[in-house]
């Protein structure tokens, strides 16, 4: 196994994150979900939780962490009255197949193959550490697609869920609630505020109480703008570092050189997906 700086795991994840964003934004996937009768508010949660079966509201709330229960309730369990988990997964795969074929039409096939050769061992190594990672374990139970572009998408989906479940474990161990984690995230990246506030569905009263609590703790700077204090930035960096460390066993098979090459390959992949 290779030794390398843990922060390379997060950088490698972000380098190919366009594959995940395509799952949310590609019109081909929207068309498939439209055919199932799932509207724009009924797609996100079923698609991610479908490998766990027709999950209840309570189970879905537990695994998605920084969403208010009312946000989840817009889709779960009502979505299962319109489509089975298998239908949701098939629709997602059919849609992403069309989206990636379109996006990668002018991309060198060798780039996709090399990225897959690096990312698949990461996903397979992660599958040896499923404990405490329910969303990851669900997707890890699915068969690998045969087509390289779909296998690359599947590999990134697995690695992303692996990191996400680990991140929730760190936050929970630190006693940070879902809405507090969201507030700290937006304080570091304010441009995400409007869309995240809307999609996570915390009320103004809940949000104000959280901001007040984090300011009292010294994690947010004083003033009208939402911003991390020096103490808050340090605490958030610690959380990210511990999340990186938890991901090291997955990236160990490819080591520093593999991580760095995957980051390089992320540039042309991101350009194609843009």
What's the tally of helices?
15
Termini, distance in Å? Answer: 34 Å
Give unreliable regions as ranges. none
Average pLDDT level: 95
Largest sheet: none
Given the helix and strand composition, which structural class is it? mainly alpha
Q: What sort of overall outline do the alpha carbons produce when their principal axes are compared?
A: globular
Query: For the CA atoms, what is the radius of gyration?
Result: 19 Å
Strand and helix order:
HHHHHHHHHHHHHHH
What share of residues is helical? 55-70%
| Strand content range | under 5%
Please count the beta strands (DSSP E, at least 2 residues each).
0
Structural description of this entry:
The protein has helices at residues 7-15, 18-25, 27-36, 44-49, 57-64, 69-73, 85-103, 109-126, 134-140, 148-173, 178-188, 193-200, 204-216, 230-251, 255-273. With 274 residues, the protein is mostly helical. The radius of gyration is 19 Å and the shape is globular. The two termini are 34 Å apart. The mean pLDDT is 95.
Helices and strands in order, then pairings?
Blueprint (H helix, E strand, L loop, with lengths): L6 H9 L2 H8 L1 H10 L7 H6 L7 H8 L4 H5 L11 H19 L5 H18 L7 H7 L7 H26 L4 H11 L4 H8 L3 H13 L13 H22 L3 H19 L1
List keywords for this structure.
274 residues, globular, mainly alpha, 15 helices
What can be said about this structure in brief?
This protein is mainly α.
